[in-house]
Amino acid sequence: MSRRLHSVVALFKSPDAIINAAEKTVEAGYQDFDVHTPYPVHGMDHAMKLKGTKLPYVSLVFALIGFIVAVLFQWYTLGNPLGGIGSDLLMLPSWLERYPFVIGGKPLFSLPAFVPVMFELTVLFCALATAASMIMFFCNLPGNSHPLHDTEYMRSVSSDHFGLCIEASDPSFDEASVKTFLEDVGGAAIQSVRQPYKRPPSFLSSIVFFGILLAVIGGVSTKFYLIFNKVLYMAPWTWMETQKKLMPQEASLLDENKKPIFKDGRGMQRPVEGTVARGFMPYQFSKTPDQAGRLLTNPLVVNEANLTRGKEMYQIYCALCHGDFGKGDGKVSNREAAKGLRPPSLHSKKMKGFSDGRIYHVIVEGQNAMPSYAKQIKEQDRWSIILYLRALQRAVDAKESDLK
Amino acid sequence: MSNEQIPFHEYKHSPVASSVGTLGLALIVLGAACAILTLWSDATRFWHNYLIMYMLMVSIAVGSLFYVALEYITGAIWSTPFRRVFECLASMIPWVGLLAIPILFFGGMPKLYHHWLPTHHAEASAQHGSSHGSDAADQSKQESHDAKQGAASSHEKDPIIEGKRGYLNEGFFLVRVILCFGLWYLFYYWFTRNSLKQDETGDQKLTGINIRIAAIFMLVFPVTLTMSAVDFMMSLEPHWFSTMFGVYYFAGTLVAAISLITIITVKLKEAGYLHPDIHRDSYYSLGLLMFAFNTFWAYIAFSQFMLIWYGNLPEETIWFAHRYGEGWTVIAWFLIIFHFVIPFFALLSRNQKTNPGRLLFMAKWLILAHIFDLYFIVMPAHRDGGYFHWMDVGFLLFAAGMVMVLFNRRAKQISLVPWKDPKLSRGLEFRLHN
User: The domain spanning residue A394 has which CATH number?
Assistant: First the structure.
């Protein structure tokens, strides 16, 4: 009986009795006491004169902290807090790097876009801090034992009795007077509860404990490593990936006699001589522009569809240099870098003298500084551009009969 | 009254009942006089103010009906002792329906919805209303203004409005208004008939029937309320659209209705006209709903704003462009602070929700906030109107008077305590857990 006294406990039969007892205990001036009931009893907090929990204040403070953190975080990373000075100039460490990206044409500091993050961080900080502080400060965890555990008293109050417990830490605590007081308010089975005897851990049990701890940590880490680095990257079926096939830049497959299928032993073969890619007819006049001018004729008829297509293609490919109206004043030619490379007007006498085929040749082969456009513009579109070009030339130098 | 053993004041014969009725009538007369004055100075403003008042009354009446249904469908017990307050407020529904008639037939439509009404109609009504000289002049000014803005005869050729013509036409508009009020009145009638019958018979099955009716009402309510919001307020600027607009109005509706319910409940309870055993802890739930729905309003209002702001499409941003800049900037920011920030912190703690004085204060605050929200929705559609005018107050006095008179009228007819409701005794025992 040398163990320290924890409390004196008493059992009551009904919720009314326990509420009455709690009220009397408060009146008698006891402060450190608690009530244990098998289910929540209405009005108990009022009878015990409990003050409201302080937990909401923790929630409020951390909610505000979360809010402020979100504002500052976004203001620093996305906004423009340093007045446009780059972090490299300020020699900031890499983890203080900012990301002042313009997104959707919005200003760097645009509050509406920040609000969802502000809201989320407010809720996150509030919830985590509330849960953590409730566990750590209000429920006294990680402590996992209490002197009332494993007592007859706790067994009773968790099934069919209502218990009152006056703790020895109370300033006006005196074992004998508390016992008479509890008898006066109608308590039964009055007992003194002592602090449990705590055995110091033996050397062997410490070794076993840390051994198990290490094994658990190691096992969990290994398992997570395997799951996240191996299992998750395993493809369920790899037949297509691993099947026999020819790959570029690799040796040819072998046939039944372990000989390469292709004579030169390569996996990749040249196309058969004379092969023509789809949509690319070979151009036979590349060295003979005059012949092209004489022999090629525009296969397209003048109609709205062809002219519209020609206009579209002209404005994509030609207008950048030759200008929207073919006057040789396109955007590129105005650049400093293109000085001296001013393309000729398409309304010159020489150009008007060119036949359709001759212009076609220029588009395909290029001329002077102009590169070949054969790869960009399809055959049909080249002819439609020429149609549109003729319309442009006519528009600049219109005949009187056109006005009618 | 069968239970004479419980002492409490009867509202029916109390001096308060008659004084509330008289005060209400006085407010109606004063408000109407004040409002009618505006008809001569600025008829368009008159009709916009009328619309604000009308939507406020819809908010309160239909919102209260929603809370009746909410109590049944969720099996809430805390609100049972004062459910009659909800029912009395919901009794305004047919009268609010009458308020729609001036908009529909007596000159409201061409003033409010001239953007989507066909031109020939606007002209016809201009001639119809030519007894007011300034009225017709206004109309012709409006038309020339429109003609200047777009291509000639913009009314008929506007492709956006033509595309909406299947929904936005006068006939269908009228049908929808009648449908909404018909459904609302039907459900109000069902709920209160069963509720009052229970006072006499004590039949518990009636609660079960009402729960089923509430389940159907919960499907009807969002559709009808969205229709009202879209028809009366979104179509003020018919090019603009927002799929969240119905929810936006719904959220405001719930805030306004629960605030007025709180005011009336607390006042009646403190004066002793409700069940004497109602504990103050029941106030907590009223405050909680105010807080919850007010936060919901802010969430919806911000969601609507952010999506439009981020998308940055001209036909969507125009609505906010009309409500930001040109002096409206201050009003927009004020709305955020007035409707959300201050009430949020003011209603956060439990003490605020159980203290009747503070609860009353916040309830009045939130009603004003909802009126201000409606003002923010409706008034910028009147582009030449400016921000505030002393005449804007007239219809609010009218609305206050109307609520007093109609509530008073109904409260005198029925018992303010549902004596034989099976949930009543549990509702009276409602206490907060700690």
Answer: 1.10.760.10
